[in-house]
Specification:
Number of helices: 8
Distance between the termini: 23 Å
Length: about 260
């Protein structure tokens, strides 16, 4: 239907309230990207009917708001288990788009042959992972996805058993470290990946303590992203299927979105 000026005004006011609320309730911040994108589209196209993705996001937001609010992250305990991730992007002539790599110690600190780790090749079916025939153009998104996989695997292994905790995660991408710290990205697909990460952490009652490290200090994750597993115990390898819809809360519904 054609956009009624009164309806657009209502959406603008609602977007403003959401933006204000997200200052105190950080899990709502990634939703702002979608609300303002929808608002901009409604203005330019003269229509304000939400699409299916927007409706799903609204339903998910209502579920989150109806949950008992967790303790504010400012009062979370600082975890001692440090995880690290990295990613590599390939050119268009390869059979896979790239590789995600990461590791974490099961308890405290650990040697290279003791850590749990993953090294996941990205199939060409994951079309979000490349732009203009190159996944190098999406390297920041790949590295952010590596962090999402790390957190989901740590949760699966019950290595985030203590709630109300800030989990330190190292990345050599300074932009991603800042974006995770503010729970806000301004571009697709990072904004959608951040939404998946934020909801995952919210439901587990944890917080990401993202920290930037120089590439020279992120060598283990860098090796795994290059599919180099030398020194890592193969029995400690963990697997994650990017194409399995059961692994995702909302990402699977959003990853086909193109902007």
């Amino acid at each position: 239907e054609m956009a009624n000026p009164a309806h657009l005004k209502l959406v603008e006011e609602w977007a403003g309230v959401l933006n204000w609320a997200s200052i105190a309730y950080s899990v709502l911040r990634p939703f702002c990207f979608h609300v303002y994108t929808w608002l901009a589209t409604s203005r330019s196209h003269g229509r304000c009917t939400p699409n299916s993705a927007t409706k799903k996001l609204a339903t998910l937001m209502i579920k989150i708001l109806n949950r008992e609010p967790p303790t504010h992250p400012a009062y979370y305990h600082r975890g001692t288990t440090l995880g690290a991730t990295d990613a590599a992007g390939y050119d268009s002539n390869t059979t896979t788009l790239g590789c995600l790599g990461g590791w974490w110690p099961p308890t405290g600190t650990a040697n290279k042959d003791e850590v749990l780790w993953f090294s996941i090749e990205i199939p060409r079916t994951e079309t979000w992972a490349y732009k203009e025939h190159s996944s190098q153009r999406r390297i920041a998104a790949l590295e952010l996805m590596g962090t999402v996989v790390l957190i989901k695997l740590m949760e699966r292994e019950n290595h985030i058993a203590r709630v109300h905790i800030t989990t330190p995660v190292a990345t050599d991408n300074k932009g991603n470290a800042h974006g995770m710290g503010s729970s806000r990205f301004k571009k697709w697909p990072q904004a959608d990946i951040m939404l998946e990460l934020a909801i995952t952490c919210h439901m587990a009652h944890i917080n990401i303590g993202a920290c930037h490290v120089k590439r020279g200090s992120n060598t283990w994750a860098d090796c795994l992203a290059d599919n180099n597993h030398d020194g890592f115990n193969p029995d400690n390898r963990r697997h994650f299927d990017l194409g399995n819809t059961d692994n995702w809360i909302i990402w699977n519904d959003l990853k086909q979105r193109q902007t």
